[in-house]
Amino acid sequence: GTSDLATVESYDPVTNSWQTEVSMGTRRSCLGVAALHGLLYAAGGYDGASCLNSAERYDPLTGTWTSITAMSTRRRYVRIATLDGNLYAVGGYDSSSHLATVEKYEPQINTWTPIANMLSRRSSAGVAVLEGMLYVAGGNDGTSCLNSVERYNPKTNTWESVAPMNIRRSTHDLVAMEGWLYAVGGNDGSSSLNSIEKYNPRTNKWVAASCMFTRRSSVGVAVLELLNFPPPSSPTLSVSSTSL
Fold it and tell me: Does 163 lie in the same domain as 62?
């Protein structure tokens, strides 16, 4: 059998080790996570019985989780991004339909507010912020995995399409690094993927990058700049199975 987890682990690149942190207040799988102002936010997901709209945040200085205002919509397979000091909960699945809706969380007033809907319904999409724009790539619309990509301009509250990925991807991850977007792994509807492609916003094109050693879907990706860590290095793309 399987169980939905509340456990959390943190990785120390200096010692190359994982350690257990304080568990969340709620069991969550298929949730959205993001860091903002030194706090780790966890929103939505599935607790083994129902899709969730609850959200909480972790303070690493005190080692405590605190509940925040719930989202207006229950969201499983949701993705979270940070932009201009706010959180954005993007798409997901509410137990009956795949969602095009997006809501914004303002931590100063502890409030979620709906913004313009995406052009497509998407659950398990990849989300990332690059040059002041929120990008959403791939996902599943309830019928098939997608390769389409769109981006949100917070100044105009509008979405526009950009070049599609070369491969259909759902349950992948999307990260920004050194002016590029990287779409990592996922599932194309028939198999898990080890492929990676990167997007250049200046040319509006996706190109293939080096493949991972292992096929990975439901993957978690993060960029970590290794300062004072021999040998000197550029920001590093770290990939693992989902740990939250």
Answer: no
pTM score: 0.92
The 10s digit of each residue's pLDDT in 120-164 is: 999 999 999 999 999 999 999 999 999 999 999 999 999 999 999
Structural domains counted in the chain: 2
Please give the structure tokens belonging to residue 108. 């100063």
What's the one-letter identity of residue 32?
A: G
Give the pLDDT confidence of 159-178 residue by residue, as tens digits. Answer: 999 999 999 999 999 999 99
d(CA 152, CA 9) in angstroms, rounded, equals 31
In-domain check, residue 234:
no
